[in-house]
Design goal:
Length: about 290
Amino acid sequence: MSPAITPLVTAFFDPVTWTVTYVVRVPGASSCLVIDPVLDYDRRSGQVSVTSIDAVCAFVDDNGLTVEWILDTHVHADHMTGLAELARRTGAKTAIGKQVSGVQKTFAGIYNLPDFPCDGSQFDRLLEDGDRIVMGDLVLTALHVPGHTPACMAYVVGDAVFVGDTLFMPDFGTARCDFPGGDAATLYRSVRRLLDLPADTRMFVGHDYGPGGRLIAWETSVAAQRQGNIHVRDGISEAEFVALRQARDATLEMPELLLPSLQVNIRAGNLPDPESNGTSYLKFPLRR
Ligand SMILES: N[C@@H](CCC(=O)N[C@@H](CS)C(=O)NCC(=O)O)C(=O)O
Ligand SMILES: [Fe+2]
């Protein structure tokens, strides 16, 4: 890791899915990376659009930057990933956690996609714990932080860590653990690893839901989380966390965009192949 570097972090908040996309670069460098871009989707009309990606691209262009890598922290279950679309527009390479293949197997089963290659080949690079991406002075170190999903990753760049859906802002707590392969005790252990980073590490979260009507926020620190996170502050044991996480998960509805998102996100953000009329279709398992 390279704690001496203080990367410049620019955040883009999507108010429809409460998702934060990050552009990360080192001062003075023209190359950058993008974490968790969003492909916009209107569930009423089926319209897929690129307003969120346009905003990232405008920022990149205005600042004379080149996107070299685009990373997802996990296979998102609440919005479509902009990975493929942003890669097409910038020529950047895409990466996600290596355990994505397990998530692909689960959802290829749920959507009945017998020919779907569940090997992560839709992404340019599959990252394992400790793997690095080096772009000049910018060194990204990948951490495998399962619990919300089995393939979740966090990315450390200098004094910053992008934690995806592990912890959220201190007053919101942590991510749900009731998706396939999710597990609260596993999340607790992943979170403790993140909280073992230096206390002044800047922590950037994957979503914010503005609890109690407070302004949307996405940056906190290891110290602030250890002191005040309502689910995992210092002193809360694994057993206590598991009990409160499971109690909350029992009250949560599935995310509104779960079924459209996952079948696109296991494809790295590519829509299903168009049918004979040129249109792509999504499919939904019906429960009885
Ligand atoms: N109402 C939101 C729910 C989003 C959601 O479930 N978010 C996940 C992250 S993908 C989560 O961990 N939420 C934590 C919680 O509600 O405790 C939606 O429909 O999209
Ligand atoms: Fe998530």
